[in-house]
């Protein structure tokens, strides 16, 4: 696993559990994406009752200013603005009776809305 930017400088980045990486890679491969170049973009956007919310999507390639990390074969792209809010977080995948899906454990959060979909730092 690498936790550095594309130019090799260290960054406080996002961690990804093995289960989350495996699920994301399977989804990417199911869409015919090249996992050697493309990756999972994790970002923060305005919205939700607490003010900010997480977003995720697959991108074919990173942007020039992205922090790029590799976790269990999954490339993760985070833009500089989002990294300010989610640096040090962990992306997990839950697969249980009550919930299934990706979840961000963010140590920077000071409060979340009742449903857990939005947050404040």
TrEMBL record:
Listed InterPro entries: ATAP, ATAP_core_dom, FeS_cluster_insertion_CS, HesB-like_dom_sf
Sections of the chain in a coiled coil: none
One Pfam family from the record: Fe-S_biosyn
Single GO MF annotation: 4 iron, 4 sulfur cluster binding
Organism superkingdom: Archaea
Protein's GO biological process: iron-sulfur cluster assembly
Domain Core span(s) in chain numbering: 14-117
NCBIfam families membership: iron-sulfur cluster assembly accessory protein
The protein's name: Iron-sulfur cluster assembly accessory protein
Organism (species): Halonotius aquaticus
Taxon lineage: Archaea, Methanobacteriati, Methanobacteriota, Stenosarchaea group, Halobacteria
């Amino acid at each position: 696993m690498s936790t550095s930017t594309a130019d090799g400088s260290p960054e406080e980045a996002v961690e990804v559990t093995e289960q989350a990486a495996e699920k994301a890679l399977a989804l990417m491969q199911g869409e015919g994406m090249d996992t050697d170049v493309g990756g999972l973009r994790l970002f923060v956007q305005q919205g939700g009752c607490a003010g900010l919310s997480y977003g995720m999507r697959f991108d074919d390639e990173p942007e020039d200013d992205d922090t790029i990390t590799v976790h269990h074969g999954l490339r993760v792209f985070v833009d500089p603005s989002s990294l300010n809010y989610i640096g040090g977080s962990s992306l997990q995948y839950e697969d249980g009776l009550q919930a299934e899906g990706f979840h961000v454990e963010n140590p920077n959060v000071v409060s979340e809305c009742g449903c857990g979909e939005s947050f404040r730092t």
